[in-house]
Amino acid sequence: MIRKPVRALIAAAALAITSAVALPAAASADSFYSYDGSTPLSSYAPGTVLKSRTLTYHVFGFPTPVRATQLLYRTADAQGNATANVTSVVRNPLSNTGKAVSYQSAYDSLDPADAPSRAIAGDVRLGGVLPNAESLLIAPALALGYSVVIPDTEGPSADFAAGPEYGKTTLDSIRAATHASGTGMTESTKIGLLGYSGGAIATGWASAIAGSYAPEVEKNLVGFAEGGVLVDPAHNLKYVSGSPVWSGVIPMALIGVSRSYGIDLKPYASEYGLKVLAELEHASIVNALGRYPGLTWQKLVKPEYANPNSVAPYVDAVNKVNIGSAATPSIPGFIAQAGNGALEGTVSNEPGIGGGDGVMVAGDVRALANQYCGTGNTSIKYTQYDALSHATAVPAWAPAAIAWLGDRFAGKAAPSSCGHIPAGNSLAPEQHTGS
């Protein structure tokens, strides 16, 4: 039975979804997000809590009976520079089971003001629609007795699609949550990782780098559950090229990854490309979807750079964010991927790439799952929803993922699809071809 505070959270979310677009944007500067101490930030260990506050959990600006503790903590960006980031911890209101879910949001934005912590604090923005709506996915975890940790995975500068950075912010968020007072979490709390789409970027990378970056966190991870998975962004660029809906993620990802690694793509951009990059510099995916129907890489760049692999900084960047080149997680995994991208207007089927869910490439995800199986992790469950697309697969994935995590918390043996997953694509790094 869903407990009373959680029922209130669900009710507030349902009410707010119908009226959110009518509410004015309220995001504003908030000193909580800035580290203002005299000690150099880099001198603190990753995960150190720098500030803490407790506030009412909001859904589309509406207060709920649920309380959240927000933490400013030390983490690092994609290049290893010390940064201060925010996470939100919702302590289970009625029990302390020693179990928590780290929920990685799919807020997918180039604007830090669209982060889930801002929405939880009460800001209402069009770019915050996704983290607000995701309250409907967080509520069941609370109902099952888990506390929930919700990091701002993209970091303080909203480095969209920069997977390695997502992994660090997620793991350091867990470090902070288990050391802060008022969260109900300790160094022995068992934790499951959960995320879809943009949230899967963080979930997958956190799982992959936990052993090397945060081994003390890894030992308490019971598993990772992800869906709609970004694996090899170079393949995704080709897959969504020309799509009536999803092609807008091409410039968004280029901006985010370039920002995270200090790359300047402007010398390669066409006049039209410069216009698009300027328009989306601080955009949310809500702004980009369907805004540039038929957009291609070739429209964004000068003619001499029509082949993406002729741009050396691009090749270097996409190779850094290809999770196929990262370590194999040591923990069990549930990986789900839809395959009917035509439902969302993406019909591309290029050799070596194939189809997907509209934005993510199914063959890449199968390849990643097979790679994990083949490199020592046989506790991988893979599910493909052939009749569903990226958005329509969420209602199928979410309850399956939460149930799968529930079994891991209960200590049940993880199911395996290893040996039964169809072959996927090559995840080999891209090669620079020259112009």
Question: Please, could you describe this protein's structure?
Answer:
By secondary structure, this protein is an alpha/beta fold. It has one domain: Alpha/Beta hydrolase fold, catalytic domain (Rossmann fold), CATH 3.40.50.1820. It has 15 helices and 9 strands. The chain has a 9-stranded mixed β-sheet with strand order 1-2-3-5-4-6-7-8-9, with helices on both faces. A hairpin with a 5-residue loop joins strand 2 and strand 3. Helix 1 packs antiparallel against helix 4 and helix 5 packs across helix 6. The N terminus is likely disordered. GO terms for molecular function: triacylglycerol lipase activity. InterPro entries: AB_hydrolase_fold, Lipase_secreted. Keywords: Signal.
Name the assembly state. Answer: single chain
SSE arrangement, N to C: HEEEEHHHEHEHHEHHHHHHEHEH
Q: How many angstroms does the end-to-end distance come to?
A: 62 Å
Taken as a percent bin, the fraction of beta residues is 15-25%
Domain tally:
1
Organism: Amycolatopsis rubida
Protein name: Secretory lipase
GO molecular function: triacylglycerol lipase activity
Keywords: Signal
